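hey so u asked for the seq, here:
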Amino acid sequence: MKLSPLVCLPLLALLTLPLSAQTLERVRAGNNLTLGYVDHLQPFSSGPETQPVGYAIELCQRIADRLKREQALPQLQLRYRMVERERVSEALRSGEVDLLCSPLVATLERRREVSFSVPIYPSGRGVAVRSEASPALLQVLEGQVKRTVPQWRASINRGLARGTFVVIAGSTAERWVREQLRLFGVVSTLVPVQSFAEGTALLREGKADAFFGDRVVLQNQVAASGAGDQVRVLDRLFDLESAALSMARGDEDLRLLVDSELSLIYRSGEIEPLYRRYFGEPSEQVLLLFKAYALP
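ran it, structure tokens below
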């Protein structure tokens, strides 16, 4: 049977839509929502696909509940899929996962590939070092070199020179460390790794001097690995970044739903017990940030 042009037009329009724009349509048609996550990223996301846990996982579960209500899908099937860090953009773009339930720092470069929710966590860049780290290195990393002191650049260079520093490959920490080493003219070795477990292992084995990354994740990784007697996380925060959930680029309908639920959680104060469970008592500054994150 030959279809008339009028019948073909709606079908043609649907087929020519980018896959990313069809997330909610795909969820309705298949009655399932696939949540992706990066494993071993405590306290945000970790565990088997049958039952992952973490702060970001719980936020995504709340978003899934909202989707059930708004889209009238009471029997919606929730699936989890573990995604390698380097495949996050590809998994979202292809529709392999509908929403990434692990925090990602929103950068202009990443926004070329994916869309981001409102922030879910005020991330802080920290550093882990070996317990027997040299005093010169600790002086630099703890910010004890005063810029008013003559030859302060030389002191920084001396503390970092010929060191081996670990970062997560492709992270904002990698870019930041490279820039700092270039700025101070430091000759050292930078080792990008794929996981926090891999980076912590290099520290334990004495193959690295420092590991830069999200301070909370570093703390959890050191504790989980039992390396507390060999590795410690310094108190200093080098920078603050806003981490968010991510989805396929241009998927504004899904983004609106996600931001609506997150904003509700922040405005209602429900974020406080959730934050407390994973990170401890939230400071006044953190609570103010969540109020600022919430959209009216």
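The first strand starts at residue 32 and ends at 37. The first helix runs from residue 5 to 16.
lmk if thats what u needed
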